[in-house]
């Protein structure tokens, strides 16, 4: 596939370099526009600045809008700056509302307002409406280009309407029926429409119980609903039931990618710094707060060890197993954290299933603890010929793993309860907490049995 893309790029570059005196680039247009927009974007972004300027002369703003939508956010920002004259605003007028709003939301307020003032008033008004919703809600990710019909229309009338409206709509797989007050009254699929008799009325064949989402619903819930119902799109309605727009399955894929990236950032304490295109200074600024906080937690860990200095002086061999206890506790807690965060994200953990999940994690921790206790007990006895040391380390690991699994599962549940992202209970955070508890357990057991060594 890489060779094919390289071949396409080289071929198109050669066509672009041919500059007939009459400015005819018919062959380039035919070859370039025959590609899928994603492939067009891949080829276009590989062009040099001068070559890209030629593309702006050859393609209309509408044709280029498909390429622009396929670019990454940072690429869009760079390309928009080099677009000539009013080419950029003409291009935005041709894009779907949600894509325009997403692009403008990445700009500062002054820059976005300047662009909106240069756009078509109707297109700008639609973009402003979407941009006005709370981020990461259904309203903020919906598109306004939706085909709506009346219940009293006939199938033949709707098909004719569809021929006129479809080119400007993002999807026509579902047609939404609205009443006189523009409230959502029903839905009909394209399949049902084209298989119906031309004289039939829409109200006779439509579904009168359409599934919809409110404008203020979280985007994760919208994505989950589309997944549950296997929809290609879901309508977005206002508080009084008016049809505002739709969220399509391609938007959901973007939402899932965004949410997965956000959760990964939270779990690894690098939220906002996962983009490889940001500068080292910005990445360091995003990571520094967590690193500094965890460093202070590390001081607590050091303090715990210091409290048991006398025990360590008596039995120096205990120090060898400190990393083992800390790593095992942290790793086990992080595993349970992943289970809890994923369950909360998918909605599989409900109020009635929390107890079951915690019991499952406790049982898992106990079994893991017993396995590790047996393995360590035998290994330490063979290596050091000290059965009491083996007992201390083995029983400590058993208690630590049993507790670590419960803590790893409980902390995200508590954070979710106070309406925060459960992924905030990041891996490093849980690891540090379990490190401290593991050391307390380890040295407490060792100290209590000190007289027997």
TrEMBL record:
Belongs to the SLC41A transporter family. Residues 142-204, 206-264 form the CBS domain. Its main location: membrane. It comes from Lacicoccus alkaliphilus DSM 16010. GO terms for cellular component: plasma membrane. The chain crosses the membrane at residues 290-309, 315-341, 362-384, 390-415, 427-450. This is Magnesium transporter MgtE. Signal peptide: none annotated. The keyword Mitochondrion does not apply. It comes from the Bacteria. GO terms for molecular function: magnesium ion transmembrane transporter activity; metal ion binding. It is a multi-pass membrane protein. Homodimer. The keyword Lipid biosynthesis does not apply. Keywords: CBS domain, Cell membrane, Magnesium, Membrane, Metal-binding, Transmembrane, Transmembrane helix, Transport. It is found in: Cell membrane; Membrane. Acts as a magnesium transporter.
């Amino acid at each position: 596939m890489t060779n094919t893309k390289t071949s396409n790029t080289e071929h198109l570059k050669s066509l672009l370099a041919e500059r007939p005196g009459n400015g005819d680039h018919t062959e380039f247009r035919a070859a370039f526009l025959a590609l899928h927009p994603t492939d067009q974007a891949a080829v276009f972004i590989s062009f040099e600045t001068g070559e890209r300027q030629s593309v702006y002369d050859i393609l209309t703003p509408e044709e280029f809008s498909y390429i622009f939508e396929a670019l990454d956010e940072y690429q869009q920002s760079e390309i928009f700056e080099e677009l000539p004259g009013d080419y950029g605003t003409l291009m935005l007028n041709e894009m779907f509302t949600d894509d325009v709003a997403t692009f403008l939301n990445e700009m500062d307020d002054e820059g976005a307002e300047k662009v909106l003032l240069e756009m078509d008033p109707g297109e700008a008004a639609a973009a402003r409406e979407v941009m006005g919703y709370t981020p990461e809600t259904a309203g903020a990710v919906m598109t306004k280009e939706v085909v709506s019909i009346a219940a009293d229309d006939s199938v033949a009338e709707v098909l004719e309407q569809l021929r006129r409206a479809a080119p400007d709509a993002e999807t026509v797989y579902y047609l939404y029926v609205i009443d006189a007050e523009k409230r959502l009254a029903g839905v009909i699929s394209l399949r049902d429409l084209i298989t119906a008799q031309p004289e039939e009325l829409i109200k006779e064949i439509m579904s009168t119980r359409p599934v919809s989402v409110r404008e203020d619903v979280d985007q994760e819930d919208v994505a989950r609903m589309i997944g549950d119902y296997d929809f290609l799109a879901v309508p977005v309605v206002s508080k009084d039931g008016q049809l505002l727009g739709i969220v399509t399955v391609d938007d959901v894929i973007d939402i899932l990618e965004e949410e997965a990236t956000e959760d990964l950032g939270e779990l690894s304490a690098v939220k906002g710094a996962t983009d490889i295109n940001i500068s080292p200074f910005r990445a360091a600024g995003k990571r520094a707060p967590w690193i500094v906080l965890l460093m202070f937690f590390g001081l607590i860990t050091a303090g715990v060890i210091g409290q048991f200095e006398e025990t360590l002086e008596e039995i120096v061999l205990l120090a060898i197993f400190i990393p083992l206890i800390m790593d095992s506790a942290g790793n086990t807690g992080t595993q349970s954290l992943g289970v809890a965060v994923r369950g909360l994200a998918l909605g599989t953990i409900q109020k009635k299933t929390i107890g079951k999940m915690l019991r499952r994690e406790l049982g898992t921790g106990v079994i893991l603890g017993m396995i590790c206790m047996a393995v360590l007990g035998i290994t330490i006895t063979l290596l050091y010929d000290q059965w009491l040391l083996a007992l201390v380390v083995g029983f400590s690991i058993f208690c630590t793993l049993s507790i670590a699994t419960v803590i790893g599962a409980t902390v995200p549940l508590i954070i979710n309860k106070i309406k925060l992202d459960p992924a905030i209970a990041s891996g490093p955070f849980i690891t540090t907490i379990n490190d401290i508890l593991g050391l307390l357990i380890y040295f407490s057991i060792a100290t209590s049995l000190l007289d027997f060594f």
